[in-house]
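Query structure, 258 tokens:
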């Protein structure tokens, strides 16, 4: 693993930020110094870019152990619950079995009172195994909000607070990589496929937030077999997605999780 450089920010005390130190304290097994530097750099990159304060949850499942992989880095709430034993691989992430296993965030869209709202919302993930499946790899039970990394036709699918058919985007020749959508108005949303720039705009009015929970490796009655390294949701403008993507990739590259 590489990475002993530090990204410092105004008001930071010592080598690590207060946000990183708070996260380290929640690890059952303390991170190594090298891993601590990588975590600190990722968090500080997001703070500097303004993304950190707009996130409800950031799950870095490519972690040293399964306990660390289930933590919400943003704060000690909405930590992941493993359902039906998804498979954890150190420094790579959690994988589903395609039948019953997934990760539950405990975050209910309509009642959790987070940054995520009807007209300003975002979600995404990084997957590091390939499979062409007609499933949602992240989303709510009715796919009111969802993303599928790669379907049988090699399309990414996305739905942003809509009770309508998902939009498909060509170019998903592999499921490996990052996927996201970002909505910052009531009329449309942007989708992202292995890029910091939009893969396309979907025109579609948003619907009121519903009482459904965000889940990873499971969508609307479907279960994924892919392995997820990072998952997140919150609310920030499309212009900020590139910063989140870049910070995530620096961490994943350093630990070999891409």
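Result returned for the query:
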């Amino acid at each position: 693993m590489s990475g002993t450089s530090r990204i410092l920010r105004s008001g930071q005390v010592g080598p690590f930020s207060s946000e990183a130190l708070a996260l380290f304290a929640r690890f059952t097994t303390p991170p190594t110094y090298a891993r601590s530097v990588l975590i600190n750099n990722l968090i500080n990159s997001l703070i500097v870019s303004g993304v950190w304060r707009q996130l409800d949850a950031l799950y870095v499942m490519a972690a040293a152990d399964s306990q660390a992989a289930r933590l919400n880095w943003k704060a000690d709430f909405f930590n992941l619950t493993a359902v039906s034993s998804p498979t954890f691989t150190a420094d790579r992430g959690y994988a589903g079995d395609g039948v019953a296993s997934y990760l539950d965030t405990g975050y209910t869209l309509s009642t959790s009172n987070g940054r995520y709202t009807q007209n300003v919302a975002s979600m995404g993930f990084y997957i590091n195994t390939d499979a062409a499946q007609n499933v949602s790899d992240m989303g709510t039970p009715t796919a009111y909000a969802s993303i599928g990394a790669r379907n049988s036709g090699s399309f990414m699918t996305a739905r942003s607070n809509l009770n309508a058919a998902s939009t498909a985007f060509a170019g998903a020749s592999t499921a490996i990589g990052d996927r996201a959508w970002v909505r910052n108005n009531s009329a449309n949303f942007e989708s992202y496929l292995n890029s910091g720039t939009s893969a396309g705009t979907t025109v579609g009015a948003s619907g009121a937030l519903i009482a459904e929970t965000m889940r990873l490796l499971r969508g609307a009655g479907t279960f994924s077999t892919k392995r997820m390294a990072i998952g997140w949701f919150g609310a920030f403008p499309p212009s900020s997605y590139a910063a989140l993507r870049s910070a995530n990739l620096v961490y994943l590259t350093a630990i070999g999780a891409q």
